[in-house]
Every structure is written in C-alpha cells, then in structure tokens.
Write a structure and sequence with these properties.
Blueprint lengths: L17 H5 L32 E2 L1 H10 L3 H16 L4 E5 L2 E6 L3 E8 L3 E6 L20 E6 L6 H13 L6
Antiparallel strand pairs: 1-2, 2-3, 3-4, 4-5, 5-6
Length: 174
C-alpha cells in the first residue's frame, strides 16, 4: 500500500543548494567540525567504567575521574588526592581505560578500575606490601588489590602507607 504525500518522510536532497552549503558543518577538507561549546560525552563501558583515550598526564586521569558514575567519582577523587599527597613526584596516565600511577624510571605501582558494584585499586607489586592488601589470587603472584564498595570506610592512613611503600619500590613496566 502506497503512503499518501502527507504520510511520506521527506528525503534529503541529493544535491545541496547554495543555502545548505553555507550551513553545512563540514570544513573544506570534508570532515565534520566538532561542536566547540559541547564536550563530547564519555562512553561508559561495562560496569560503568569510563572509556578514556590512552594518554599520559593528569588531564586524562581527571577526565576519567570526572566520568566515573555516582558515588564512585568521590572514591576516585579521594584516591587521586591520597596518591598525589603521598607520592608528590607521581606520574599519571590512562591506559586500558584505567588511571595508572607510577614513578618516572621505576614503572607503574598502582591503578584503579570501575566495576558495577565497586572500584578496584590494584597494587602491581602488592605482595611486597606490609600488611598485605586483602585481594589476591594464585594467578597473580605479585599483584594485590582492594575492592572499595559503596558505603565502605576508606582507611586513608593504611592506603597512604601502601602508596608510600609501593612508590618506593620498582614498579610494573608493561
């Protein structure tokens, strides 16, 4: 059955007229211009983990933290503040959609990652920390982690102690 003229969805013209060329969002090179006033929304991957492009420096880490959903953003901000306060010479990057913290020339000592119900803080050489962080498996001989869930108290003194210890030892070099 054919649709009446009023029911049809209008098709885009194959030939733009001069008015539509002037209003076109394309540059001379044929690529679309990004909207300058609107930042591109960050895509959340499974579990709410922000998808941030791999990059070195504080800016991508802050972008990751800002995109963390709900209560997890506050955890990310606290973790970042504790790490920077405890290891002021820390180097930052986002790799594999997670913030990484390390010391220049020593490698990475810590990372965190957003999951559906918690934020996982991983110490890459955590098996050498005193006392041992609670998480770890036989598959990870060196790494240990801490899972932070909504409402869990954060022992900032213990976390700072682990950060201090981890930053002082050789880290993980991928």
């Amino acid at each position: 059955m054919r649709k009446s003229k009023a029911q049809r969805v209008p098709r885009a013209s194959k030939r733009p007229n001069s008015a539509s060329k002037a209003a076109s969002p394309r540059k001379a090179g044929g690529t679309a211009r990004p909207a300058a006033s609107q930042p591109k929304p960050v895509k959340l991957l499974s579990g709410g983990n922000p998808q941030i492009a791999k990059a070195d420096g504080d800016a991508p880490v802050q972008a990751y933290i800002a995109a963390m959903p709900g209560w997890k953003r506050g955890v990310g901000q606290r973790l970042d503040a504790i790490i920077v306060r405890t290891a002021p010479q820390v180097r930052k990057a986002v790799k594999w959609n997670s913030p990484f913290y390390g010391i220049e020339g020593q490698g990475w000592f810590l990372s965190f990652h957003v999951f559906t119900h918690y934020v996982k803080v991983t110490f890459f050489r955590g098996a050498l920390l005193k006392p041992l962080p609670p998480g770890g498996t036989a598959r990870s001989n060196e790494a240990r982690w801490l899972d932070l869930r909504e409402g869990d108290p954060l022992d900032e003194a213990q976390l700072a102690s682990w950060v201090r210890q981890a930053a002082a030892m050789p880290g993980w070099i991928p």
